[in-house]
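In this section we walk through a basic example: taking a raw amino acid sequence and producing a predicted 3D structure, encoded as discrete structure tokens. The instruction is simple. Fold the sequence below.
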Amino acid sequence: MSHHAVASPITCLMLSTSLAFSVAAAAERSPVRLIFDTDIQGDADDVGTVAVLHALVDSGEAEILATGVSSKNQWSPLCLSALNTYFGRGDIPLGVLKGPGSSKRSRYAQQIAEEFPRELKSLDDAPDAAMLYRRVLAAQEDNSVVIVSVGFLTNLRNLLMTKADGVSPLDGRELVATKVKTWVCMGGQFPKGTEACNMRRDALAAAYAIEHWPTPIVFSGGELGIQIQTGARLTKLPVSSPVRRAYELYNGLTNRASWDQTAVLYAIRGLDGGLEDVWDLRTKGSIHFDARTAHVEWRDRPQCKHAYLVKKMPPEQVARMIETLMLHLPKHSDEQDKKRRQNGSAAVQRKYSTVVADKTE
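The resulting token sequence is shown next.
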């Protein structure tokens, strides 16, 4: 099959939506073990998504096995490291895209990387994301890992193309089939339309990944997140927050679409049916992606491994839920702020004050 036009295989594992989410149920079940892959460069929703992710880890609902950056912007991995460090998890493995890929200018990545402490000091210190994912997956129990992508699909294509090695006798596709439960992907336009970014920017990689991925995929399309506006309430965060700072740099702390946040929220709270009052799930079909035009179309099939989220709860209510998670402060925030001041991080406050002064002149 050509990698330019993709239709999924006709074998299907139906995705269950039978259980209702509750805090008590989340406490009783094991945290969702996930790999998080992001481009974190163009839009600020990547930053908001990292905040949501860490909030759900702090609540005991998830465990981050690894993070990775799918863009070639040199500041993106350092920005992600600063965010992970802020939330007290600077030691989370962080991989970068090695080899060709896509990049675009960022309004915030360099500033976040330079203004906030981070564990990753240089891109040279970061491993290849695909090989990192391979090592992490090989160490997990079968059918136990959720992968969430909120950026380009280059790293996931590269993972599928890895060969058997000392880490595992399985090649990339076999390893994914054995270890991954579900891939939740922010991308597409449903039921049909032109894909705006995540699949378009490296369309050949997206086509390959979608065609060859052996486990169920749940897509959160662009039509969903555009209606869920978050960010304005981040003025409530302290000026020492890199989440607030990123949105300030991106759009002056006004609302922005929440495309990426939907994918992480669903991956952690929705795969067991816990968000069935928030979104419906369209199944029994597959997506067709044309890499030449970036056109996406849902095609009904009696059996499938693909699904996509459909609006159910009013977007304003979903936005309130997501933005509350974005406002989450690190558990260790008091101690962290003290350390930051001791390290001279009051420069963040001075820079912020300068920005405010400039705006009022």
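Looking at the output, two observations stand out. The radius of gyration is 20 Å. The chain has one domain: 5-330. In the next section we compare this with other chains.
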